[in-house]
């Protein structure tokens, strides 16, 4: 075929990233010491108890016990490979059958801002067939998670402001407070992260992938990315088409749009997701918010308004804010397997118990099983601001807030104000609107017609843009398709990754009419995916526990 949480870059990747054969040759010469570095793999079986994973059989536990960890170094600035370096953590589950091993399969998370090391825990359990032929490798991208240096923006004063700021402002005072916080947040990132902020964009993540590929000893890159994770993979096909292996891009975001249009489309998507959740909720005649779609949606609006006026006391002196409830509902809506859990949490909240929504908001906020928090929010903002160098002034955003509010009365205003986050951000490389991956091997794209974040049109756009794309259409629900229990999707992807079977340019799979968790499947609520943009949610829950 041929032509965030997605780009309006003014500078082409052809210039800044040196793509094409000439660029690859120059990069190889300048980066030889990075490609030749040794990797010291050491055992690092996961602490399943700390992660809250208890329902595994002996075979699954034995598989995870084989996990190993290491790290690689990459240049902060590819134009200055002799300068500072990032250290990226890696983890892998070695292939179960060394004689059948075909190399490594890199697993990339959503976000941007999510680390991928723990993908080596989830993916072997949801898709165990992969480990028969591949080392399954996860990594934390530059500036993210446990990479060093990591993006850092907050001090105690900013944490306090986080708790107080309303990211869906509906008064002049709230707008003034939010704009001031956004400026302070940018200043905090500049002060605490320094020059690395300009170099954490997706183009450089794609270039890091080529160093990781070389260090792992693979001639080509085999790759599975979901949500934002598709973007480094797509960029890789543009930069290094001759090095592509079997690449799967699941739930593409608006990679070919600018920031404003991507937020507009995602705002439409979340409202459609809310409608689908509402329809499912009322189908069993026990929905806690009403008996029809409109009643459920109105009930959500009422809940937000009540929390805006007065947060609901939660455990340990914390409170469930309007922003926390939005986070919980966003992550619940995006995962049909979590719809029953979301319904129960909403029912409890209407009875004055916010524990369920508060816990779900913690997943969205980047809270781990130990109660600590990653740098997800800082990294999410940083990557988006580098990737989207186009900015909006306050007047533009105020007008867009009115438009977006009509598209989604529950999430539109917050989404619009995300466009103001990058107004004073340092300019980075940006990205390109042009992606064709000329010369790349077949790339499998998964598009879900019921995805409320990565709407199906985004998958169609990417498939049209990439010359070697194969589009698998999944008529189902939720954010992402692979590993969610659909035999058609899983079988098609497995055949592509394990045997190189080309599904053709227009394959189709159909899901169940209602979401259900398949018996015996391991499902991690919230998973390793997140929406590309956090829907204008505040970081108050993160700040409370930081």
TrEMBL record:
Pfam families: Abhydrolase_4 (PF08386). One of its GO terms (molecular function) is hydrolase activity. The keyword Nucleotide-binding does not apply. Coiled coil: none annotated. PROSITE patterns: PROKAR_LIPOPROTEIN. Residues 1-17 form the signal peptide. Residues 413-509 form the Peptidase S33 tripeptidyl aminopeptidase-like C-terminal domain. Keywords: Hydrolase, Signal. Belongs to the peptidase S33 family. PANTHER family: 2-SUCCINYL-6-HYDROXY-2,4-CYCLOHEXADIENE-1-CARBOXYLATE SYNTHASE (PTHR43248), TRIPEPTIDYL AMINOPEPTIDASE (PTHR43248:SF29). This is TAP domain protein.
């Amino acid at each position: 075929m041929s032509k965030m949480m997605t780009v309006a870059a003014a500078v082409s990747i052809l210039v800044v990233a040196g793509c094409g054969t000439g660029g690859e040759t120059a990069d190889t010469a300048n980066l030889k010491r990075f490609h030749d570095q040794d990797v010291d793999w050491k055992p690092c079986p996961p602490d399943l108890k700390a992660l809250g994973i208890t329902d595994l059989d002996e075979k699954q536990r034995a598989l995870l016990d084989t996990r190993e960890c290491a790290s690689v170094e990459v240049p902060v600035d590819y134009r200055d490979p002799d300068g500072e370096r990032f250290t990226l953590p890696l983890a892998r589950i070695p292939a179960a059958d060394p004689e059948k091993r075909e190399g490594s399969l890199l697993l990339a998370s959503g976000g941007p801002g999510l680390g991928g090391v723990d993908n080596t825990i989830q993916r072997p359990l949801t898709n165990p067939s992969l480990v028969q032929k591949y080392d399954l490798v996860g990594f934390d991208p530059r500036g993210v998670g446990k990479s060093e240096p990591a993006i850092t923006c907050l001090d105690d004063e900013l944490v306090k402001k986080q708790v107080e700021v309303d990211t869906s402002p509906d008064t002049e005072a709230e707008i003034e407070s939010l704009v001031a916080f956004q400026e302070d947040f940018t200043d905090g990132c500049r002060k605490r992260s320094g020059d690395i902020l300009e170099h954490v964009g997706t183009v450089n993540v794609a270039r890091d992938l080529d160093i990781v590929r070389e260090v792992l000893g693979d001639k080509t890159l085999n790759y599975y990315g979901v949500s934002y994770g598709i973007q480094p993979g797509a960029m890789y096909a543009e930069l290094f088409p001759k090095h592509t292996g079997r690449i799967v891009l699941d739930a593409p975001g608006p990679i070919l749009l600018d920031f404003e249009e991507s937020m507009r489309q995602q705002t439409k998507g979340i409202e459609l997701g809310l409608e689908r959740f509402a329809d499912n909720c009322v189908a069993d005649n026990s929905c806690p918010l009403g008996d029809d779609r409109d009643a459920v949606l109105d009930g959500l609006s009422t809940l937000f308004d009540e929390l805006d006026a007065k947060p609901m006391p939660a455990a340990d002196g914390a409170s469930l804010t309007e922003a926390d409830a939005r986070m919980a509902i966003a992550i619940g809506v995006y995962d049909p397997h979590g719809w029953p859990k979301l319904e129960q949490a909403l029912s409890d909240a209407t009875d004055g118990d916010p524990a369920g929504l508060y816990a779900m908001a913690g997943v969205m906020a980047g809270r781990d099983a130990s109660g600590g928090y990653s740098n997800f929010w800082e990294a999410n903002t940083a990557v988006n601001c580098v990737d989207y160098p186009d900015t909006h002034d306050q007047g533009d955003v105020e007008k867009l807030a009115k438009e977006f509010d009509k598209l989604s009365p529950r999430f539109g205003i917050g989404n619009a104000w995300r466009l103001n986050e990058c107004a004073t951000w340092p300019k980075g490389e940006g990205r390109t609107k042009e992606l064709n991956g000329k010369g790349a091997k077949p790339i499998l794209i998964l598009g879900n017609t019921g995805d409320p974040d990565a709407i199906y049109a985004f998958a169609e756009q990417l498939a049209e843009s990439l010359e070697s794309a194969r589009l698998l259409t999944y008529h189902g629900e939720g954010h992402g398709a692979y590993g969610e229990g659909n035999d058609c999707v899983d079988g098609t992807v497995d055949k592509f990754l394990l045997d190189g079977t080309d599904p053709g340019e227009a394959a189709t799979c159909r899901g169940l009419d209602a979401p259900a968790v398949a018996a015996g499947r391991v499902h991690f609520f919230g998973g390793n995916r997140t929406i590309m943009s956090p829907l204008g949610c505040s970081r108050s829950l993160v700040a409370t526990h930081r």
